[in-house]
Predict the 3D structure of the following.
Amino acid sequence: MKKQAVTPIPSQAVERYASTAQAGLTRAQAAARAAQHLDNRAQSARTKSISCIVRDNVCTLFNLINLVLAVAILAVGSYKNAMFIGVVLCNMAIGIIQEVRAKRTVDKLSLMSAVKAHVVREGACMDIAREDVVLDDVLALKSGGEVAADALVLEGACDVNESFVTGEADAVHKKAGDTLLAGSFVVSGTCRARVEHVGNDTYIAGISRDAKRLRMATSEIMGTLKKIIKIISIVIIPVGAILLWNQLTMSHNSIQDAVVQTAAALIGMIPEGLMLLTSTVLAVSVVRLSKHKVLVQELYCIENLARVDTLCLDKTGTLTEGVMEVSEVLPLAGQSQSACMRALAALACACSDKNATMQAIAQRVGQQSDWSCQLEVPFSSDTKWSGAVFAGRGSYVLGAPEFVLGDMPDALRALVNQCGKTSRVVLLARSDAPIAQGTLPQDMEPLALVLIQDRIRPQAKDTLAYFAQQDVDIKVISGDNVATVSGVAARAGIKHWERAVDASTLTGEEALAEAAERYCVFGRVTPPQKKALVAALQKKGHTVAMTGDGVNDVPALKEADCSVVMASGSDAARNIAQLVLMDSNFDAMPRVVAEGRRSVNNIQRSASLFLVKTIYATVLALLFVFVRMPYPFEPIQMTLVNVVTIGIPSFVLALEPNRARIQGSFLGKVILRAVPGALTIVCNITAMLILTGALDIAIDQYSTMCLALTGFTGLLVVLKNCLPPTPVRMTLFGAMCAAFALGMFILYDLFSLAALTPMLWALLIGMMAVSALLFVFFTWLFVRRMR
């Protein structure tokens, strides 16, 4: 039974539960919400259903034409000539199997990004899948936790990182009555919040949905194949009708002969395996990349990334791990390094609220101390400091220098400003007086500056160096302070990191477009500006990839030619991304580029084999509209030629390693590769038409010689595509030659071939030699244009 699509009830149209911070929902209430489909599940499928995959592979124009031709051939009783339909069925089966395999890989990897949510139900805290959170659930949030759905704070207070939405790394303080957005993280504090919006009603889901609706992916390969199919679709029906009439009006042709010969001409015009080849190669790439924890959500994005010449990077989560680390502790005048480190360790040990700053300090100095803590003051976004009072040692405070000291000495202010260009600066200070009611003593003595930086991903430098070697320009775009972003770019090894600009100073489209080419680092960039920067680069002729992880990156990700997101990023970013790095590891990018190059270059090479047949078959079909001679081939003969010169070689060559840079137009290169072989075959058949009339060659012998010449030339095309030679390529070529010889000399009855006289053999061998020379000449003439 077909599953019905479910439309959830809008949250504003249901009766709300008055869930409290302590009790939460009952199990019955949660079950009722789930039954109303008011849970946190997205309502759109990530991948196509199996039925859609089968339909898309079966219900095509070319399959319909093949079916009509097969029925026509069976109707006139030429059963063996209908064997070509077996190849069509195999093509469909391979396409379906590969796409289903890729779908299952994508679905399996998608589950890896599942996140648990902490909720209160019937007075007890429990962990559930984020998708199972329902409207009016109470979330129990603490430092490091992710907000699973839009919620209203009921009790407690916390500082939240909303960089996914705003692009700003600074935490935002939230208290009772404030709203928490899905996808944000709790930096410090604890709270309980009631869920107000779930699933597609959340803020980030709305952005993701709009982004999906507004932009469709582009692909040069896909566009080229559609053009080829469109042209063939327009030509094939009128040419077929005229050719059939021409063949029927020949006195020595029967109805069966006319139908079979016309079917052979039309079958030759159809590049039925070309779309299959493309989708199969890209589907194999999806499976290969999955082994490196790369989730491909859109097949043709592999091609787009391989063509990229400009890579736009978000700072947080892409270049950096989103984890802070202490880069240096600078003791101030008169202070010792060891004393400062002991004080920091005591604070790390005493602090119960492990925010990002304190975690970085604890990682550096440890959390073991024999100091006795009498009072702890947790960090607050209002005061910008945290501290503790230790027995016999006084008060120690850690926080923003201007908040801890107020007016700083000029020398200290200059040092803070200098260090602040590349790091976040925190001041360690002390006083003999206690901290009273959350107020600092007036005589705070500065002890040391603690420099904290975003931790650069270990593989980032190597990855960026790879892109630099490939002549890919790097642009760092972030909502953070430009000095901070520039410092991260410098530490990551990005060239021209000093070419930085504060985007808040760029007013107007012209200024932004000029800056897009001129600068490499952009700070204080708003989400609309990120999108505008990507668009400006595209207008300059660049192919742009964008990496990010937050809601604020969504507009730019959508605009880019290829969008890449870390799995640790927001749902909105993941849902619209074409590529998701499942282990949030930036070093997978070179593998994706290499896989894209392998796919595009091999598709380009193998597609030329298909177009050889399409070009010569179309020209011959048009030629025989005007020539009063039987079309030289039958479908069964075309099957032999297609299998040994196109079908098997194209799939073997398409799966080979290939890391050459992609250059030039896909269509131009494919046509230039295909034309030499196609022209040679057209010349061969034209010569045979003349010789058949002059020498009075029998029709069955004429057909046999045409097949031999076509197969020979097709094998020359295969040989050209097997250069430079490798063991695999030479084995492939030898096997195809043997298969063609088997069909010609052993299975000649199956393929309706006639015996040739010694004179005709001599003529055939001479024509093969001429064909080889023609092929070499045409190859030189056309392939040199590709350079």
Remarks:
- Residues 1-9, 210-216 have pLDDT under 50 and may be disordered.
- The first strand starts at residue 116 and ends at 121.
- The CA atoms of residues 301 and 562 lie 6 Å apart.
- The radius of gyration is 35 Å.
